């Protein structure tokens, strides 16, 4: 069925953000819904040097701005939804600002705020939206939180996002998704994430090797022990844990959790051998895995900024020497 085109005479709805506004921002293009925002040039100029320059350049002497006849400015390249939210925040019209923003809109919002150099003005909101999305590690586009927290200059959230990516991804973060079409994030961040994933994966895989005091328990002469060892490796194999391969950190743990207990019978040998630890082996390994997963570090945003040429910064999160 053919759609009826909107009559050209139909004026887009105007959202009044400043009653005595002197600028009418016209948003949207042929593909995006159109909307006009009546705003105050003073409010926008206060938080955004880009808007300030724009108004100064367009309205020179003799063309002063007035609320009697607001000047129109077309911004067809800017996302109407994001620009409306941004202008509402700037004009403190916050009653109907969404409490949640999906990751695509949030990424667009971050790009817009960077373009207009007004990251500081929106920080409390960007924090709320990022924190809301942080636990949802499996939503499509989750990796964009890396770019969002980087561009929005949120050190705690950047640490948590990187920590979550290390815990919940295998080897790589989807660079294309994360970058959202822009090259804000230095390549070194992706390299470090990959290094961290390898580091923690190796540590977790290492816990699967049955240890026994200083020896690995596999060379014991106790016959019961060698039966248990065989049983252990065959159960690991059933769960895809042996031979070891790259997996998401939490997946190693979940697979081990679902592994049936080892078959053990009381062994009366006098050896300090695998038969003695087998009954508690699974729990011991789970504990070690949890300790490693809980200790996973994230990346310090300020260290990344400094590595990429920003000088005189102090780390806003406390951290020791980063292990990757
Ligand atoms: Zn034994
Ligand atoms: Zn640091």
From TrEMBL:
InterPro entries linked: SKP1/BTB/POZ_sf
Top-level taxonomic group: Eukaryota
Protein name (record): BTB domain-containing protein
Organism of provenance: Melanomma pulvis-pyrius CBS 109.77
High-level lineage: Eukaryota, Fungi, Dikarya, Ascomycota, Pezizomycotina
């Amino acid at each position: 069925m053919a759609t009826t085109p909107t009559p050209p005479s139909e004026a887009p709805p105007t959202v009044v953000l400043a009653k005595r506004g002197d600028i009418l921002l016209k948003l949207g293009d042929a593909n995006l819904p159109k909307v006009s925002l009546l705003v105050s040039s003073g409010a926008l100029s206060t938080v955004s040097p880009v808007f300030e320059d724009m108004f100064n350049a367009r309205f020179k002497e003799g063309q002063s701005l007035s609320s009697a006849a607001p000047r129109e400015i077309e911004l067809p390249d800017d996302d109407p939804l994001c620009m409306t939210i941004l202008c509402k925040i700037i004009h403190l019209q916050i009653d109907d600002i969404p409490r949640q923003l999906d990751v695509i809109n949030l990424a667009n919002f971050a790009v817009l705020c960077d373009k207009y150099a007004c990251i500081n003005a929106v920080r409390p909101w960007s924090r709320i939206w990022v924190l809301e999305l942080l636990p949802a590690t499996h939503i499509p586009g989750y990796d964009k939180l890396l770019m969002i927290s980087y561009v929005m200059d949120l050190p705690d959230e950047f640490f948590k996002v990187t920590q979550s990516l290390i815990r919940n991804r295998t080897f790589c973060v989807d660079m294309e998704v994360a970058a959202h079409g822009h090259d804000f994030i230095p390549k070194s961040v992706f390299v470090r994430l990959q290094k961290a994933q390898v580091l923690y994966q190796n540590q977790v895989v290492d816990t699967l090797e049955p240890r026994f005091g200083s020896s690995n328990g596999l060379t014991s002469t106790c016959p019961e022990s060698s039966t248990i060892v065989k049983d252990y490796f065959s159960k690991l194999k059933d769960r895809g844990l042996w031979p070891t391969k790259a997996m998401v950190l939490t997946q190693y743990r979940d697979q081990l959790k679902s592994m049936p207990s080892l078959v053990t019978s009381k062994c009366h040998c006098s050896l300090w051998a695998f038969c003695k630890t087998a009954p508690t082996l699974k729990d011991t390994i789970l504990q070690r895995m949890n300790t490693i997963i809980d200790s996973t570090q994230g990346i310090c945003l300020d260290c990344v900024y400094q590595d990429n040429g920003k000088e005189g910064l102090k780390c806003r999160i406390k951290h020791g020497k980063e292990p990757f």
